[in-house]
Amino acid sequence: MLFPTTLVGSYPQPDWLIDRPRLAGRFPPRVRARELWRVADPWLAQAQDDATLLAIRAQEQAGLDIVTDGETRRESYSNRFATALDGVDIDHPGSALDRTSSTSTGCRSIKMTVPGPFTMSQQAQNDHYPSEEAAALDYAVAVNAEIRDLFAAGADIVQIDEPYMQARPEKARQFGLRALNRALEGVTGTTAVHICFGYAAIIHQRPSGYSFLPELADCPVQQVSIETAQSGLDCSVLAALPGKTIMVGCLDLNDMAVETPETVVARVTRALAHVPAPRVVLAPDCGMKYLPRDVAAGKLAAMVAAARLLRKEYGGG
Prior knowledge:
This protein is of the alpha/beta class.
């Protein structure tokens, strides 16, 4: 299928499940943030499972081709996985700089997301390893095991989220790419890596281009997920990723207005000047979990309609 549609990963959690204003009023948590949940511990897991089914159903109703779990059980994209690892002291949190250098069911394919080893190494206070690189490489071993388990459980695509590669490109060049490659070692399923500028709900100003992107050309992932909508990214950089499928972020999550399908088509067309149609996937910019649910549903419907228009134009059905 040409122009398949998917989420980057997250979808808005219900207000009855999580305190959404409180969630939006802080940076994504790195340690556990149980205070965000509105449901008490004895019933929380069941409530999260129910909300996950609602997120999947919302994606099906919108017509997405590749569905995720909406990251519904997570307080942030990384902390649920990172704090479940042995050797992480969640009772005595340390400190580390954030990415802005401040302290702080159906016939559809299935995609699951995991935080990347480089990003987790940058989010943690290291009191054990001799270097950040050593920590990142050990995180990569854990991520590799998780990826293998996800494919064994039936995932069609596993996406690794590495936003700190954009935020800290020099360190990403020094050892981040090595850690990412280690996380993918021996993995045979379809994998993706997501690089972003930060959530629109928190980071309002965007740079004109990526500080770390062409370096992924030699990474074994098949797909690269980027943002283009809010930033108005110069898509010519995509020519530096030959052979990669590009997940084109084409929904502006800083704008509460629902795009027309034609607006989405225009954004995707900018990428098509540098990436052939069979290697383009439509997705939102990242951070959809912060949107009101009705806005999220409307934007997804517009993206699906845009995919239909593109398929008609490019002969994909």
